[in-house]
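Section 5.1 Outputs to date
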Amino acid sequence: MCQTCKLIEQCTMQRIVWIDALHRMMEVNRIFKPTFKVDDMSQRQLEHATLAPFLFSSRITKETGSAIEPYIIQKVSHVLSKKEQAKYCIETLESFDSAYLVPGGRFLLTVTTLPTSEESSLVQLWDLGVPSEGIGRTRVSSMKIVGHAFYMLALNITPEGNGLRLFSHLSLSKEVETITVQEIILESPEPKFQSIATMKLPGTNIRTDVHGNLLAAKFDSVQCEPAVVVWDFVHDLAVSWKCGNSFSWDSMIHLYNGFLVISKPRTFLAWGVPSLLPRELKPEHWRFIWWPPLVEEEHTGPGKYHTLSISDSHWDSNANPRSLIMMNIRGSGLNGAPFLDVYKMRQMDGNSQRLANLLTPLEGFQTDITHSIKHALYPCDDRLCFCYCRGDGRVSVCTFPVPDNIGHISQITRAVLSTDTDGQLTSEDLCAGSGRLCIIEMKELRVLDYLPPP
């Protein structure tokens, strides 16, 4: 035993062991590759980065009884160079509208409405530095969107893992909106956003999901009929169909392993995705097929339901199998407080006889969720994690083990992250793999680290 312990100790002292462990951790937790410059990292930094998901998950588990305090808090401010001031025709910027952390916590995408006469936005990509080692504020790139209302839909990685894909939509009119896919490669000498695909959508009120090279969108068509489209934005292939009165304003959409799933209060619907064909470029030429759902299943139970559905994150350009968790909020828990019923959707195939009872009940719990969860499920060590604003300036975090094939969950862990504010947060995003949180309060952006420096 003594000899074995010495051998293990010698192995853990080798740099190559920790480099290999870091790469495996990044793959399991879907950490963006450019987050770490491995050749420049010390042994201690390698160990700390590798263990970060475990350390953050452990802190959530151990400190469930009180608010978890951050080790580092720093405000991120706009600082425009003279070149940028001339380029964007503005002198100063004082606020942020929304912010999105790239998994790994190092890179941050922000969107700001510009104070100009025309409706325009400024999109910026920031390098905040490696989490837990202080917070920098280096801008990697920026772009100005002119003349249209800009809305972020999703972020994804490129297949090579060295760049980001930004999905957004622009409101062109009351009847047509444009979905744009832009790409930025961080390994290039001067990273710039470049448009790689666009699609004019004959409708409004868009909800989307991205998985691999596919983007799915539900929308109200020009004739005010609910419709969906599945678009392969790399090869520009698509299929669209109308769905009758299947949607409500808060319906959620997911691409789920070859199927399209839409959830709404008390009900979810699932379609097998038909074959994709070359896309009609002009919205007025779109042809909608009638494609009835393979399944329409209703949840039953007491209380008023509001349905949430979250899948594992967009951060998988190879379209590997996903997990899909359905959650119903009902106001019939203890003392009338909301209660969260949790279900896991099992894998589907095209056999309609096997499409009944697709939702397996998991452990439910008392909750303070009062609105939709903005973000997907993220891996954190050997667990899945999601977060949401509480309404008191703090952020709740829920983690649970990856459900097994039967759907059992042994324990759901809930904790509260203190944000050093008691105001209403308008935006929050958590990187569970690094313990870094970004929040926006009253247009002010702050970044908080919940793990100590290495």
